[in-house]
Amino acid sequence: MAFAGTVPATAQDYYIGQVIETGAGFCPRNFLEANGQTLAINTNAAFFSLLGTTYGGNGVTTFQVPDLRGRMLIGDGQGPGLQNYTQGQVGGQENVSHTIANLPVHSHPGVIQTVTGAGNQRIVFRNSFGVTADNQYVSGTQGFDGNLEATTLAVQKSGTDGVVVPNMSPFLVTRYCIASQGIFPSRN
User: Fold this and answer.
1) Which of these, 79, 105, 143, 180, has the minimum number of CB atoms within 10 Å of its CB?
2) Per residue of the chain (188 residues), what is the pLDDT tens digit?
C-alpha cells in the first residue's frame, strides 16, 4: 500500500527547465547542476527551445543553463514599489565599500563654554600619583586674555576610504539542479 507523497518522483514528473533544490551532493538523473555550464543545441533541442540564450551561449551551436552558485533567486517582473527585473538578469553584491560619497550629509554640533572668574589660580599637585611632597603646583603659562567669538570648526576625516562591509544575510548552502529532460511544458 502506498501513501500520498511516498511515491518516488521521476524525471517525467518534472517539466524541462524546472529548477529544484537538493541537499544531496549531486543532482538526480535527468537533471543538470545549475552552474552555468554550456550545452550543445543539437543534442538538447527541447531544452534550448525553452531557455534560449537567456543565460548565455551563442544561440547557434550553444546555450547555457543558469548559474545559481552563490546566487539568490527572485521572480521576474515588478512588484509594487520595487524595481523591474527580467529573467536572466544578474545583480547584487556580496560586499559593499562604504566611502564618504555614499554617506548622507550630516553634522556634529558642539558647544564650548567659558568660565568666569580669576585666571591666576594655581592648582595643587598634592595627592597625585607619584608625588609625595606638599606645596607642589602645576606649572604653566598664562592663559589667553581675549574675547571669544562664535566660529565654525572644520572637522576632517581620518582613516581610510572604502571600508568593505559584508552584505549577505545568514545562509545555508544547498545545490540547485535544472531538469534537462522531462515533460515539455505547455503555455496553458
Assistant:
1) 105
2) 444 444 455 555 899 999 999 999 999 999 999 999 999 999 999 999 999 999 999 999 999 999 999 999 999 999 999 999 999 999 998 888 888 777 788 777 777 666 666 655 555 555 555 555 666 655 555 555 556 666 666 766 666 667 788 888 888 999 999 999 999 999 88
The model's pTM is 0.64
Distance CA 145, CA 143 (A): 6
Q: CA 176 to CA 68: how far, in whole Å?
A: 7
Place of cell 568593505: 164
DSSP per-residue string spanning 32-77: EE-B--EEEGGG-HHHHHHHTTTT-S-SSSEEE--B-TT-----SE
Name the residue type at position 84: N
